[in-house]
């Protein structure tokens, strides 16, 4: 199989390209970026080729699938065009910045009949899949409440140019700040773990510390904290941050009738189950992928498998749209100081 990668920043360099290269079914990667040098650098690094334009890349009949690694505001343009060009597409999150544009992508997928998967990669970790299994067995009874967090030192430490000029800080390109970068992962995860959807939200947000290349406060939030209620009546809290300086936090705790499931709460054990009677069960699975610890996510392998076996992706366009609605609701709640129904 032959793949095209559009957008040659850090997510392509450290996540998509290495995993395509390692997959035995992929024989070539073609790179495109508006900055041709970035595309050439990745082509050299992964023994690939470059395309002079998106149009030529999508017109190439030998290319089976596309990874859309462009910035947020481009997803609805590139992913829609790729699907309608007859390519299977793995789109980076968020699926789009607006519900209207996300629906355009979902409609394009249905019209094309091609596979669309969105890179909400937390569903793929062994710990999260094991936690879902534990919840489904109901050995701890029903889920009552939850809390989840995702924070690190900020995208300026991860982005391709390693500076405060990163597009993540620009309203017109990032759109949703830390909520669209990190928060949307955890919203999708809660939907996945609980087989439920967040129905109403309240939130506070702020640009507390980050500044742009001119030393001015950034245009989007670098912190947001939320209260959440699901359709099935579960209550939870969530915090998302670009200012966790010193250590990344990607933990989730599920509180059930008969005990607690702690996920990625410690480095030693990826899951800790603590029962109502005080019994403790520990699971050593694998450490979660971080900006400083690049491991195989399993996303690329799953994407290729769903194409080969004609299966539904683990994260569909509809799943991604559902999570986007919640994030937009969270931002609306924070801006209006109100409770928002999704």
TrEMBL record:
This chain's protein is named Dehydrogenase
Instruction: Give this protein's Gene Ontology molecular function annotations.
Output: nucleotide binding
Which residues are in the GFO/IDH/MocA-like oxidoreductase domain?
Answer: 128-261
What Gene3D superfamilies would the database entry show? Dihydrodipicolinate Reductase, domain 2, NAD(P)-binding Rossmann-like Domain
What SUPFAM superfamilies is this protein classified in?
Answer: Glyceraldehyde-3-phosphate dehydrogenase-like, C-terminal domain, NAD(P)-binding Rossmann-fold domains
Q: Name one Pfam family in it.
A: GFO_IDH_MocA_C3
Task: Name the InterPro entries for this protein.
Answer: Gfo/Idh/MocA-like_OxRdtase_N (IPR000683), Gfo/Idh/MocA_Oxidoreductases (IPR051450), GFO_IDH_MocA-like_dom (IPR055170), NAD(P)-bd_dom_sf (IPR036291)
| Domain of life per record | Bacteria
User: PANTHER family, alphabetically?
Assistant: BILIVERDIN REDUCTASE A
């Amino acid at each position: 199989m032959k793949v095209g990668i559009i957008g040659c920043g850090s997510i392509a360099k450290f996540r998509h390209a290495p995993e395509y290269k390692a997959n035995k079914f992929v024989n070539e990667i073609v790179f495109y970026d508006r900055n041709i040098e970035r595309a050439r650098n990745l082509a050299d690094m992964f023994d690939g080729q470059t395309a002079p334009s998106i149009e030529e890349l999508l017109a190439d009949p030998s290319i089976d699938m596309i990874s859309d690694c462009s910035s947020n505001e481009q997803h609805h343009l590139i992913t829609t065009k790729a699907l309608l060009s007859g390519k299977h597409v793995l789109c980076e999150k968020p699926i789009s910045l607006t519900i209207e544009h996300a629906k355009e992508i979902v409609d394009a997928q249905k019209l094309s009949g091609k596979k669309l998967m969105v890179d909400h990669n937390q569903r793929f970790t062994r710990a999260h899949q094991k936690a879902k299994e534990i919840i489904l067995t109901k050995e701890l009874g029903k889920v009552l409440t939850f809390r989840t967090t995702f924070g690190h030192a900020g995208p300026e430490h991860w982005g391709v140019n390693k500076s405060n000029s990163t597009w993540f800080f620009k309203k017109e390109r990032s759109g949703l700040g830390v909520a669209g970068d990190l928060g949307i992962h955890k919203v999708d995860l809660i939907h996945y773990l609980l087989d439920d959807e967040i129905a109403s939200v309240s939130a506070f947000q702020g640009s507390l510390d980050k500044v742009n290349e001119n030393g001015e406060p950034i245009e989007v939030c670098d912190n947001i904290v939320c209260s959440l209620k699901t359709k099935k009546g579960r209550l939870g809290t969530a915090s998302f941050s670009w200012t966790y300086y010193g250590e990344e936090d990607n933990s989730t705790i599920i509180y059930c009738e008969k005990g607690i499931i702690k996920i990625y709460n410690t480095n030693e054990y990826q899951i800790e189950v603590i029962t109502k009677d005080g019994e403790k069960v520990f699971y050593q699975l694998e450490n979660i992928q971080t900006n400083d610890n690049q491991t195989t996510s399993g996303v690329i392998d799953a994407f290729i498998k769903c194409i080969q076996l004609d299966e539904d992706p683990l994260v569909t366009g509809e799943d991604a749209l559902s999570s986007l609605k919640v994030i937009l609701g969270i931002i609306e709640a924070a801006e209006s100081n109100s409770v928002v129904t999704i």
